[in-house]
TrEMBL record:
Residues 78-112, 141-182 form a coiled coil. The keyword Plastid does not apply. Keywords: Coiled coil, Metal-binding, Zinc, Zinc-finger. SMART domains: RING (SM00184), RINGv (SM00744). Residues 5-51 form the RING-type domain. One of its GO terms (molecular function) is zinc ion binding. This is RING-type domain-containing protein. InterPro entries: Znf_RING, Znf_RING-CH, Znf_RING/FYVE/PHD. It comes from Polypedilum vanderplanki.
């Protein structure tokens, strides 16, 4: 068994001054205690181990009678403990190195995760923007489809209206042709009638009134056709501009012919009536 000073950790022997503190019972070298007292500068001084106060009177000098013993086993145990301590120290260093490496790996993974997290947030934001843009495009597309469908329906209605107006114009044209033919036939009849007319002035006035009534009827028919053409929607007029212009030109030509025929008829009637009066004189 080896007993040593807890300050310098050296074993006690009979040649060194050893003292004991009566207050706490701890044993140290006298020189170590004095050095400790000088370094610590405590007043009153305290035990280096338990920090209990002591004074000069509480210091007791001790004397040991020690015999030399075989310390081979102790030395072997000490060497074994030193080897174990060195091994543990190396293991500790290796573990510290491994811990540092793992910490570096953890820092690298954390940085990578932060980068991925920021990229994910960025992609999430971009995805939200793209979703909003897609919703806007989808809304505009639906509005366009609805507008296109509405325009197609309007186009069908305009085509139907155009076909109806075209049919009415054809009917008006036929009616005007029939009126023109009837007017021509009536002119021939009136001419024959004038040739057979005698001195009856009332008959001439009746003929004139009849012709004037026919002219008024023709003008009324023309006004009715003009009102129907003006009632056509603007888009239908644009779509059928060429056909309507041709029909109107034809109608105007027919009306001009009717007017010329009527004027010619009245000129014939006036001339006939004048000749009739001259013959009577």
């Amino acid at each position: 068994m080896s007993v040593s000073c807890f300050i310098c950790l050296d074993p006690y022997n009979s040649d060194e001054g050893v003292v004991a503190l009566s207050g706490c019972g701890h044993v140290v070298h006298n020189d170590c205690l004095n050095e400790w007292k000088t370094i610590s500068r405590q007043n009153p001084p305290k035990c280096p181990l338990c920090q209990k106060r002591y004074n000069k009177r509480s210091i007791t000098k001790l004397y040991f009678h020690l015999e030399d013993v075989d310390n081979t086993q102790l030395n072997q145990a000490l060497k074994k403990q030193k080897l174990l301590s060195e091994t543990l120290q190396k293991d500790k260093e290796n573990l510290e190195t491994e811990v540092q490496r793992k910490q570096n790996d953890l820092d690298r993974v954390t940085n990578s995760w932060n980068i991925v997290y920021h990229e994910l947030n960025k992609m999430k934001t971009e995805y939200g923007i793209k979703c909003q843009a897609y919703n806007i495009i989808d809304t505009v597309n639906n509005e366009y489809l609805q507008s296109n469908e509405k325009l197609q329906m309007e186009n069908v209605l305009l085509k139907q209206e155009s076909a109806k107006l075209k049919h009415e114009i054809e009917e008006m044209k036929k009616k005007n042709l029939n009126l023109l033919r009837a007017s021509s036939q009536q002119q021939k009849k009136d001419k024959e009638f004038v040739d057979l007319t005698t001195d009856d002035d009332d008959d001439v006035v009746i003929v004139e009134n009849s012709k004037k009534n026919e002219v008024i009827e023709i003008n009324d028919e023309e006004e009715e056709v003009g009102m129907q053409v003006s009632a056509v929607p603007e888009t239908s007029k644009v779509a059928n501009n060429d056909s309507i212009e041709e029909e109107v030109d034809l109608k105007c030509d027919l009306n001009d012919n009717d007017e010329k025929n009527v004027k010619q008829f009245f000129e014939i009637d006036y001339n006939s009536f004048e000749n009739f009066l001259m013959s009577q004189i």
